[in-house]
Amino acid sequence: MPLQMSSSTEGKTARLNLAGELDATSAPSVRNALEHVLAGQPESLVLSVENLTFMASAGLRILIFAKQKQPGLKIYLLKPQETVVETLKKTGFYQSVYIVDREEEMKA
Amino acid sequence: MKKQTFPGTLDALEPIRKYVEASALSAGLDRKVVYKLCLAVDEIATNVVLHGYEEAGLSGDLKIESSMEDDRFVVLLEDSGRPYDPNVHTVFQAEFDQPLESRKIGGLGIFLARDGVDELQYSATGNANVHRFIVRLSQT
User: CA B122: distance to chain centroid?
Assistant: First the structure.
């Protein structure tokens, strides 16, 4: 399924909703959207990925981009699918992002 | 499953994943194993398109085929771009302990490709590069 994406910013929290498949084809548009929301210097980035069914390394590189563009940014992945979590774990990304099942779990 | 041919561009990634998913599921592979295999093929196909074709100023096709060989499910991905052997690229797994702020962006795709299958073979003959992705059924 092609990637579907929307973004928003509320206070110091930027949010990207991603559904479908994130691969090398769709990654540039996500990176553009990310650059746009990071311009507002948010403290937190919430990636809502409950319906993200596939994530290639292009998705991992977007996380690196976000952290290198804005060190100190807290990145939350909201409800990632098990296969995506597996990829994050085996590549060491698990320790640099927060995996949460509910928005209330995000630290202020 | 019957061989299919796609233009060697990034637009081929999704249909290639669909092909791998359908053929692997019909061979009886577990869903998680199928996901890892799709990821492995996707990463190599991406590298072929970006490095083997675009970066080298070449164009060509991506041919994909799958078959059962005894207790192994095998996917073949063939291209005619600049040769690119995933097994000669070093993946620095020590990097994986580093925080993202200081991580390098290279090597992740190759790591996921190798990790996603039991064996990843590469051969170059004449103008054809062939990647073989092998999954043993006994483990699924």
Answer: 10
